[in-house]
Amino acid sequence: MLQDANKRTEIELQVLAEIHELGRSRLPLPELLDAILHSMIKSLTADAGAIQLLEADQFVVRSAHGLSHNTERPFVSALDDGIAGKVKQEQKPIVVTDAYRDPTVVNPAIRQAQIKTLLAVPLFSNSTVIGVVQVDFLEDRNFADADIEHFERIAHWAAAAIERNKLDSEIDRSRDALKELTSKLTDRVESERRRLSRELHDQAGQSLTAILIRLDLVSEMITDASIKQQLKQIETLAEDTVEELRRISRDLRPAVLDDLGLEEALEGLASTLSGGALSITLMVEKPFPRLPEAIEIALYRIAQEALNNVIKHAQATVVAVRLHKDKKAVHLEIKDNGIGLASTSSQNSSKGIGLVGMEERARSLQGKFNIDSVPENGTRIRVEIPL
Question: What whole-number distance in Å separates Cα of residue 48 and Cα of residue 4?
Fold first, then answer.
């Protein structure tokens, strides 16, 4: 008896370890169920088995071994029908002898396989039955209480692995939905940016240019010096407004990004933001090709946000921007010699929002976003977008 108990414990620990690893594997649910069932059949040296899950008020066979099973049209039974229904009702294991003759067995695969003995155990999650696992034997089999308890413990771990898999799948679906929503929102934002940029450039910009021409004509017709001086002030104000509109238009959607591509757009961005104590150097491996529009937009916006953060917060004097690609991905790196991100200043919240936005842009394209920062020794942002 002691030898049997030791052997049972050894098998149980081995199977529990297998199921624990399966629960962490993130396998598709059908593959997970097949692997769990295989381990559970092995734990009692059974000939066959099946896992039925509770779905929409019915039990559905989702995995079977040694029994006929159609994955596309699996066997389904009502909540109060068959062995699974009885297990759910009684909330405890059930042993059926002469199973292929027993009228409570409704699955024809049991009769077809001429299963003699059947052990069915509930799969619990938070005290609620989520399914039933059964193991089947072609010969008569007697179960000691220790055998059933052993199988119940394994079923408990199996249920936990199944629930974890479902939760992981739900998280993955939610993450995919969020990515899709973020992508659609980004497309809408960029489309609106493009529209506003063109309207500012084509309509407001051209109207102000026309005003400047008319002011110049009126100024030539007037001889009064004081009025000429006022017109000159208005003209200067209009010219400043034109330049401001061009800047806003460029920030909303630089035309060069659409017309010439990412390399030229980044060159324009670096040139515009450089000045004073800040030097921005752009390094691009040439010839650099045009990329899909979504990638060009994402990398441009990430670079724009990163450089604006440097100007506002980093107290840097030098920034190096590097753009290159290989066969699998395009890489962007922005490195500065500023104070880093470890400061606990009140500016951190605004920087954090910007960093989250950059990361979301990268991840929406299945990319990677990494940031390294050392106090008083600068910050490096690295982005990788798959092609």
Answer: 22
162 near 130, Cβ under 8 Å?
yes
Question: Is there a domain that residue 209 lies in?
Answer: no
The one-letter amino acid code at 148 reads I
Give the DSSP H/E element, type plus range, for residue 116.
none
Q: How many CB atoms lie within 10 A of CB 272?
A: 14
pTM over cut 0.85: no
- Of 300, 64, 267, 32, which is closest to residue 169 (Cα–Cα)? 32
Q: How many CB atoms lie within 10 A of CB 165?
A: 22
Query: In this predicted model, what pLDDT tens digit does every residue of 152-178 receive, in sequence order?
Result: 999 999 999 999 999 988 988 887 887
* Encoded amino acid at 199, one letter: E
User: In the chain, how many domains are there?
Assistant: 2
Residue 28 sits in which domain range?
2-174
Residues 34 and 149 grouped into a single domain: yes
Same domain, 146 and 281: no
Do 137 and 8 lie in one domain? The reply is yes
Q: Same structural domain for residues 13 and 140?
A: yes
Distance CA 48, CA 37 (A): 9
Rounded CA gap, 21 and 40, in Å? 14
Same domain, 282 and 153: no
Other CB atoms within 10 A of residue 220 CB: 9
For the cut 60, the answer to whether the pLDDT of residue 1 exceeds it is no
